[in-house]
Amino acid sequence: MVKERPILFSGEMVRAILDGKKTQTRRVVKPQPSADCILVEFQVDSTKPWWITSDPGHKSVYEYISPYGLPGDRLWVRETWDVRFLEGVLEKQLCFRADMTSIKCPENFKGELNYNWRPSIFMPRWASRILLEIVNIRVERLQDITESDAEKEGMTVKKVNIPQPGFKVGDPLESYRDVFKFLWNSINGKYPWESNPWVWVIEFKKFEG
To answer: What Å distances lie between residue 140 and 82, 104, 167, 169, CA to CA?
Structure first.
């Protein structure tokens, strides 16, 4: 049975999905196994995806179940939004911050006008405009990402715009991996690139229909 689950994306990543540039996302495995663990087995069967890790001496074994589902399951995207009246439009409009587009709210929508962007975590299911279908799911260490997969994460080569340790404004990011590393560190303070955490790798496509 196909299941749907919510997933959060930033405005930049929403735009990349809409443009067809983003077909992968990486999310931290929680809780993280101990640092010396290695991947012993990974399986996606007809009921649930799971993987087992063990330290080199096989003294510890962990079992994880993906919170994102199976290939074929769907993820509905939560993004920054608001409900407001737009100039020259009589009906309440649901506005998406990522690209400043809007849609008419359902007639039975009783929510209040806000005129302040609402965090993506508060987006209800009916307001989501993007539905993704999981194509594949696996686990790996963060730093194992390839240049090709970093491009599939929706990265575009650019210059540093926010200083970070080792980077100053204007520094060029010359590879998709560099851009991904920079972006990851800007939003994952607890699990920085340098800690090389285990991550779920979710490959997806936009669901049509």
So the answer is: 36, 41, 26, 31
Residue closest to 31 by CA, chosen among 73, 75, 65, 70: 65
Angle (nearest 5°) at CA 177 between 194 and 79: 90
Per domain, the residue ranges of the chain are 4-77+130-206, 80-123
Quick one: how many helices (H) and strands (E) in the chain? 3, 13
Q: What is the pLDDT along the chain (209 residues), one digit of tens a residue?
A: 889 999 999 999 999 999 999 999 999 999 998 877 888 778 776 666 788 777 777 677 788 888 999 999 999 999 999 988 776 666 788 899 999 998 888 877 766 666 789 999 999 999 999 999 999 999 999 999 999 999 999 998 665 565 566 666 666 677 889 889 988 998 998 999 999 999 999 999 999 86
Rg (CA), the chain: 19
Do the Cβ atoms of 131 and 75 come closer than 8 Å? yes
SS3 47: coil
Rounded to whole angstroms, how far apart are CA atoms 142 and 11?
22
Put simply, whether the predicted model's pTM sits higher than 0.85 gets the answer: yes
Contact 202, 74 (CB under 8 A): no
Distance of alpha carbon 86 from alpha carbon 90, whole angstroms: 8
Bridge partner list, 201: 26, 138
Q: Is 11:24 a contact under the CB 8 Å cutoff?
A: no
CA atoms of 12 and 100, how far apart (whole Å): 12
